[in-house]
Amino acid sequence: MSSHLRRKCTPECVFAPYFPPDQPAKFASVHLVFGASNVAKLLNEIPAAQRDDAVNSLAYEAEARLNDSGLRLRRLHHQAPAPPQAAPIGPPPRPAGARQVHRPSRPASFIRFCRPK
């Protein structure tokens, strides 16, 4: 394994046969994408004869995901701060206790007087 988890791999470690110490990037990418505990659970659930292929597939998938520009952009998007809220549309709210001013409409006689004939 690597010092990524800050502890040395023991010979009984499930990662020891598949992540040699001279390939720390292999474990780092798998750990970053899938998580060490998830990979350990997976390795313990599959037959020993298939574990080497599984680890190589996980390493390939992890590298592909880390190098995918679309995934990087989505990851950056989720880490970015939220955009500021847009200003509300319409008149500002009235202060508490304020009364609405009623403006009466013009009388019908005024409207009839102002219309062109």
UniProtKB/TrEMBL annotation:
Q: What positions does the domain LOB occupy?
A: 1-98
Superkingdom of source = Eukaryota
Do you know which Pfam families this protein is assigned to? LOB (PF03195)
Please state the span of the N-terminal signal peptide per the UniProt entry. Answer: none
Pro residues bias: start-end ranges? 81-95
Q: What residue spans carry the region label Disordered?
A: 77-108
Protein's name according to its UniProt entry: LOB domain-containing protein
Source species taxonomy? Eukaryota, Viridiplantae, Streptophyta, Embryophyta, Tracheophyta
